[in-house]
Amino acid sequence: MSVVSKQVGRNRSKKKVTSGTPDKPGSPAFDPNKPVVINNEDIQRLAIRDEDLAKLRKSFEKASSKEAEKRLYVVRKSKPGVGVERSEKPTKQVVVARPAPPNAKLKPIDYSGPAGPRYNSDGSIVPHSLLGTVRDFVEVAIQRQDMRPDSPAAAKLPTYHPNMEIEVEKYHRPPTSYRAPIPTATNQENALHNWRRRMADRKRQQGYISRLLQKPPDRLVMNQDDAYRSMQERRKLVDRAIPAVDYGKGYRVGSEFWD
After folding, report:
1. Where is region (Disordered) located (predicted)?
2. Cβ neighbours of residue 4 under 8 Å, at least 6 residues apart?
3. How many separate domains does the chain show?
4. Greater confidence, 82 or 51?
5. Does residue 154 sit within a domain?
6. Does residue 119 contact residue 126 with C-beta atoms inside 8 Å?
7. Residue 97 within a domain
8. Do residues 200 and 168 touch, judged by C-beta distance below 8 A?
9. Which of 113, 136, 112, 138 is nearest to 123 (CA)?
10. Whole-number pLDDT of residue 200
11. Do 154 and 138 meet the contact criterion of CB atoms below 8 Å apart?
12. At the N or C end, where does the chain have fewer CB atoms within 10 A?
């Protein structure tokens, strides 16, 4: 009887406690398969409709169909020198060579450069300022019309008169009381006559060339071979004297004097 009475008392106390608090609504069950959709006025405003796209397309077509506007502007181009004193036109200086009067003061010529000859105070050419003779230089300059024939340099040259007389001495055999006959195989008399005839032709040709070039015969190129032997002899003397001055000449590469 005591156990039953205790349980009845507990049930009464629970009923008293629960009878004072209101019932809370239960939360709906969450379904993961059901999509969550948000739909209100703000979302409806952001929606894109076909009518809006059609209006936008029509406005774009109207804007593209219009031609670009053209405007004309007047630009003033200022001329140079407007408002400022105009500069003078550029002038061109031309140097004209004219013969100086006889009483003109001559400037002292003191030129020692590599180009051209040097002149003295009287107008003659300095011989050591040319590579060659003064006569050859003046003759070539007159032929090329670089120098006038009446210039002081040409007037100072001595006149050259080539001697065109060619003297050929005739060989005279000394008289002999007896002359033994010389065999034909060893007879050189015809060769001697041939040599004399050739030498006479050579001198005659030298005279013609000398008269044509207005040069003495000893200055012709065909007579320059006469000094070849003496030049070779001097060369041998120099070659023999070098070992006495410099030791080792000819014993190493590059020590040869004439190379």
Report:
1. 1-37, 81-109
2. none
3. 1
4. 51
5. yes
6. yes
7. no
8. yes
9. 138
10. 92
11. yes
12. N
130 within domain boundaries: yes
CA-based radius of gyration for the chain: 65
Could you tell me which residues are beta bridge partners of residue 119? 125
Most confident listed range (24-33, 59-68, 83-92, 96-105): 96-105
Cα 189 to Cα 179: distance, rounded to the nearest angstrom: 14
CA angle in degrees (0–180, nearest 5) for 190-195-197: 95
Q: Read out DSSP for the chain?
A: -HHHHHHHHHHHHHHHHHHSSPPPPPPPPP-TTSPP---SHHHHHT---HHHHHHHHHHHHHHHHSPPP------PPPPTTTTSPPPPPPP-------PPPTTPPPPP----SSSS--B-TTSPBPGGGSSS-HHHHHHHHHHTTSS-TTSHHHHTSPP---------PPP-PPP-S--PPPPTTT--HHHHHHHHHHHHHHHHHHHHHHHHHT--GGGSGGGGGGGHHHHHHHHHHHHHHHHHHSTTTTTSTT--S--
At which residue do the structure tokens 């006469």 appear?
226
Q: Residue 85 has which token pair?
A: 């004193």
Kindly report the backbone phi and psi dihedral angles of residue 48, in degrees, each rounded to the nearest multiple of 5, phi listed first: -95, 125
Residue 82 has a pLDDT of 54
Residue 138: inside a domain: yes
Which of the two residues, 26 and 116, has the higher pLDDT score? 116
- Decide if pLDDT at 36 tops 50: yes
